[in-house]
Model the fold of this input.
Amino acid sequence: MGTTDNRVFEFESVKKALLNREAPFPPGMIYYFSDISREDLALIEKVWPEVWIERRRGLLEDMEHLAEGDTLLYFDHMAIMCLGDEDPVARATAIRLLWQSRKEELVPLFVKLLNEDPESIVRAAAATGLGIFVYLGELDEIKKNTYQTVLENLIQVHLGSDDRQVRRRALESLGYASHPDIPDFIQRAYDKNDEDWLQSALFAMGRSYDRRWTKSVLRMFNHPDSIVRYEAIRAAGELEAESARDLLFDLLEEGTDDDDIYYAAIWALTKIGGEGVRDLIEEALDATEDMDEVLFLEEAMENLDFTEQVNLFDMMYIKGKDGDLDDWLDEDMDSI
Done:
């Protein structure tokens, strides 16, 4: 049984809606699938193959979009069930639904799909899905043998003969890793005369949080391919590359018709921080009447607040190491 807005949906009504080709699936009924009970999931699993492919795909996409906007929604049970869907698009979408999940038991499922699924879009999605576990492994938040399994499989796929999209996604996930071979993988992808591989190399550079890549990233700010420029801007933000600040200001001052690059540049500046960033966002807020842009800029301002708080903490830590933290705090309190 699922609920939303004080409405209760029973399985039979959901089943009827699922199988009704004459009407769209009621949007509010999608909440039935959030945190679905084991009993209801078993009932859905029986009827799911009878639902036509386009509706299965659409429902999973709707769940994905809803989950992105509401962290209280939980479609993991449905997503795990749909990893076995006969349709590869549905399987790939189910994997995306699980990209934010940190459940270690997903690793063997993703590894199996990475190595054995017959469709490259599913293998590529699995390679991306394993990225969070590379990140968690670096933080020692999953078992060491689980992390080793993730690394070994991603490296094997990246170096193997699979579809290039799958190998690229494996490299992007490996970007988080401190494994000694990863910088060489990234450099080789960067040096290829291939824009797709360059995009993946820049993506991995940003995830690495390794300042060695700063110059390589900045070189791509003027690349003729817009997606490469976008990935370079994103990477500069992830690396918190202060040397990118003036370049990003110049880009925004000159203006761009590419919304993705505009938003990426603003967001990168919020991660870098520093003089002029807050004023720039405030001016952009005053100048726009587009509600989507307003919401983005407000979120960007919140991210800048976070960056400045982290930077302030770092300053306090450095002063504390010098033995001056108490004096510095006293001076700061006196100024309030």
About this structure: The CA atoms of residues 135 and 176 lie 6 Å apart.
